[in-house]
Amino acid sequence: MSIGKTRPPKSRSRRTGSGRAGRELLSALPWLAPTLVLIFAIVLFPAGYMVWTSTRDVSEFGVDRGPVGSENYQRLLEFDAIPRVLVNTVVWVVGVVLVTILISLALAQLLDKAFPGRRLVRLAVIVPWASSVVMTSVVFYYGLDPFYGILNRALVDVGILDQPYGFTKNTVSAFLVAMGIAVFVSLPFTTYTLLAGLQTIPEDTLEAAQVDGAGPARTYLEIILPSLRPALAVATIINIINVFNSLPILRTITGSIPGYNADTTTTMIFKFIQAERQVDTASALSVVNFVLVLVIILIYLRVVRPMRED
Amino acid sequence: MAAAGSRARGRGPRWLLSLAGLAVAVFFLAPYLIMLVGSFKSRADILGVPPTYLPEAWHPGNYASMWDTPETPLPYNMVSTVVISVAATLLVLCVAMPAAYYSARNRFPGRLAFLLLVLVTQMLQPTVLAAGLFREFLAIGINDTWLAMILVNAAFNLSFAIWIMHSFFAGVPKEIDEAATLDGASRLQTLRQVTLPLVWPGIVTAIIFTFVACWNEFAASLVILTTAENQPLSVALTKFVGQYQTSWQYVFGISVVGIVPVVILFALIERRLVAGLTAGGVK
């Protein structure tokens, strides 16, 4: 941290002029350069390289065999599984995010109230957040095994099932199980974000509503929910990005199912890279995903305006 | 988040809320309890049909014998996870702290653009860039090395660290700095003796959050680390699934070892988790 310590302590100034601005930029650079280098080398450069690769023909051993224009993208469009994968992706993102938000609204409401043991409940809620998603998925995969799975046995014991069911053995139920796990691991962050939103609602606003004779339902719909709008926007958009990019859950739960019927565009990219060894096609699909994520980020910047205080 | 944020209103008795809270806690802990109990079962026990909830006999020896399991070189995977996580966290700290400090304390041309870049990076994940990273590391010859994953983990967790430390540095009133400077302290002295103690909670949050994220990273490691000895625990664990007879007791033993430390770390920063992630969007 010793670099740049000889600079004057404050550079905030009302004076303008390009010389001044240049000097300010020069003195800022040593502090920011490591960050800029790392972001350039590991985020921006590979993004560009990926776009480049998506227009090349790359052999399965990684040899670049020259330009092919938009052939990789066309191959994607002609791929038989693509319609199903796109539908899966939409169902995956919309379903998981929607259910996560609804459950989190209830959970946040509960955790916002004072009761004995609340601190411990909050700590329990963060466990799936801290844990490796692979490890969480694996225990569900084991638990839902039709023969030795303990969750299957529990479902039978409770009377929900007549006999154990092979949840992970067919495409549709495995995909739904994966969605359930995705909700499970998304709940902690979402609940905490909404909880932070709840805590910004002033106590007197709620008291005033009670004095005015508003019932709990009306108070919730007309006061609490509107105040939660910023927190909801943040939680929704960050969840959309996370769920869209999620790999480990589907890979664990539906990975042994042949074909692409239980894939999203994200898990398909990894099949292209690993099983098919088609980095060029994988790059083309990654570019599509990347552009989608950028659009979501733009929406985030427009809706949430996280930079507004600066 | 304690008393100040609590709401005493509500009509049901408080024990009813506690009961609901207990149900929520059990729901979130259940998979991890299954892991914990399963890690003590014998191989025959855990593959038994129908399964039993509790082990017939408890086998704590699994935690010793799992290191020799044939599926994956587990001791190496453990070392990989630790080395990559620790190195990436240190790198993040060295790179993020100056940037957070400077951008919080000084105006300069391009400051907003810089913060915007940080924010956008925070929302990107290695998953979406895996193909590009794979090609890049292949081209510069560091594919399948710890270094590659240290760089990836550092780059993608940098933003959270900058953001949370930025908000702590920005929260220290300038007057405190100025007073220290008037008393004759150098810039570095002021930083070390006045500012650092005030922003320490932000630094700890950044360290823990980064460490946990690196510890659990999966997608990029899966593509970039191809040698079994180089892979972290998260990737190693997938080798067990889909085997004819999976050694679930070891899978769960490894999971317990992989989960307990990071849960404890996360619990330490529980109150500050949201602030950094949502980058000022909630309040």
Give an account of the 3D structure.
The complex is a heterodimer of chains A (310) and B (283). In chain A, helix 8 packs antiparallel against helix 9 and helix 10 packs antiparallel against helix 13. Chain A has a single domain, classed as MetI-like fold (Orthogonal Bundle), CATH 1.10.3720. In chain A, 69% of the residues lie in helices and 2% in strands. With 310 residues, chain A is mostly helical. A two-stranded antiparallel sheet of chain A has the order 1-2. Chain A has 13 helices and two strands. Chain B folds into two domains: 49 residues, no CATH class; 191 residues, MetI-like fold (Orthogonal Bundle). The two termini of chain B are 14 Å apart. Chain B contains 13 helices and no strands. Chain B is an all-alpha fold and 283 residues long. Helices cover 69% and strands 0% of the residues of chain B. In chain B, helix 1 packs across helix 12 and helix 7 packs across helix 9. The chains are: A mainly alpha (310), B mainly alpha (283). At the A-B interface, helix 1, helix 3, helix 4, helix 5 and helix 6 of A face helix 1, helix 4, helix 5, helix 6 and helix 7 of B.
Distance between the termini of chain A: 25 Å
| Mean pLDDT across residues of chain A | 88
The CATH homologous superfamily of chain A is named MetI-like
pLDDT < 50 stretches of chain B: 1-9
Number of helical segments with 4 or more residues of chain A: 13
Question: Helicity range of the residues of chain B?
Answer: 55-70%
How many domain modules of chain B?
Answer: 2
Give a short account of the largest sheet of chain B.
Answer: none
Largest sheet: spatial strand order of chain A = 1-2
Q: Would you tell me the overall average pLDDT of chain B?
A: 88
Question: What name does the CATH topology of chain A carry?
Answer: MetI-like fold
Q: Which structural class matches the secondary elements of chain A?
A: mainly alpha
CATH architecture of the largest domain in chain B: Orthogonal Bundle
Q: Kindly provide the name of the CATH class of chain A.
A: Mainly Alpha
Helix content of chain A: 55-70%
Distance between the termini of chain B: 14 Å
